[in-house]
Amino acid sequence: MTTGVLWPHIASSLYRMGCGLALALITAIPIGMAAGRSRHWDALLSPFLYIFYSIPKVVFLPVIIVVLGLGDFPKIFIIAITVFFQIAIMVRDAAKAIPEEQVMTMRSLCGTKWQDFRHLIWPACLPGILTALRTSLGIALALLFITETFAAFSGLGYFIMNRMEVRNYEEMYAAILTLAAIGIIAYMALDIAERKLCPWKK
Question: Which residues lie closer than 8 Å to 10 by C-beta, 6 or more apart?
Fold first, then answer.
């Protein structure tokens, strides 16, 4: 770390994982909410969510690389689709669990759809979103490592395997500890965010 050799690889890994999680969030949240709050969308989407959730998406990595090429996007995509299903299912279950009495109370107060979302649906789903993110971190880091050892020339996964091949074990262990530290820090940050953003869970 003192030579700075790890920093470009840390940046590459953080970029790929951050983009993968962001892509999963912006797609999974609206789909999960739609399935949770609408019987029509639930009947349409839930079978798809549960079937594909059980399939290990990493086995499609060679196909994804063939279709999408060798850049960052295939690595981002495989992280995104894996985390997507976990978040979508958690959001769907949280939205579906909202008592109908609370919805009717909001409507009796002439609440708009935006007010329903802001004051009822979003607070109900937010803990599930943060919990899904926390439980997905380990999976995302494992996928990051796997994808970066497959047709990559940067990132902590690539760096670890490269240093193992040249028997530079000091830098290899430094990279492993760095990857572990990223996971621990991210988990702690999400735990703090959940306590700050969801005080009603205490």
Answer: 156, 178, 182
Q: Which fold has domain 7-201?
A: MetI-like fold (1.10.3720)
Q: Give the separation between CA 31 and CA 174, rounded to whole angstroms.
A: 40
Pairwise CA distance, residues 184 & 156, whole Å: 16
When pLDDT is cut at 50, 70 and 90, the band that residue 111 belongs to is low
pLDDT of res. 201: 67
Whole-angstrom distance, CA of residue 41 vs CA of residue 126 = 20
User: CA 29, CA 36: separation in Å to the nearest integer?
Assistant: 10
Residue 25 has a pLDDT of: 94
Chain center to CA of 5: 28
Q: Is 85 exposed, middle or buried (0-12, 13-18, 19+ CB in 10 A)?
A: buried
- H-helix or E-strand containing 66? helix 61-68
